[in-house]
Design brief:
The protein is α/β, with parallel strands linked by helices and about 120 residues long. It has one domain (about 1-115): SpoIIaa-like domains (Rossmann fold). Helices cover about 40% and strands about 35% of the residues. The protein contains four helices and five strands, in the order ββαβαβαβα. A five-stranded mixed sheet has the order 1-2-3-4-5, with helices on both faces. Helix 2 links the parallel strand 3 and strand 4 (about 75-80). Helix 1 packs parallel to helix 2. The chain starts with a strand and ends with a helix. The relative contact order is 0.18.
Amino acid sequence: MIEKLRESAGNVIGFKLIGDITKADYEVLVPEVEALVQQGEKARLLLDMTEFNWEKVEAWGADLKFGHDFHNKVEKMAIVGDKKWDQWLTNLAAPFYAREVKYYHSDDIERAWDWLRA
């Protein structure tokens, strides 16, 4: 499941990824980013991965399409997590999903929001 975070405002939007992500979950993420882009905004995204388990195979196409469609429109992406592989995922995401990507430990989520808002 993907939930929009209440701290989202303007062109800074955050999402919490919970459990196993499916293709249908992208129906939450994509319209939000698309709306910003249509307004001429560069999106700044926070992805809270602390409760993320994995992405189902059926979602891989939607994930890759998101990266293809929005890579140049996502100015910054903060990945927040507490597992070692969250850091590795940040390195993998950088060339495909945003112009600038940073990892923040879950204890530093406020720093991640601050970085996106700056």
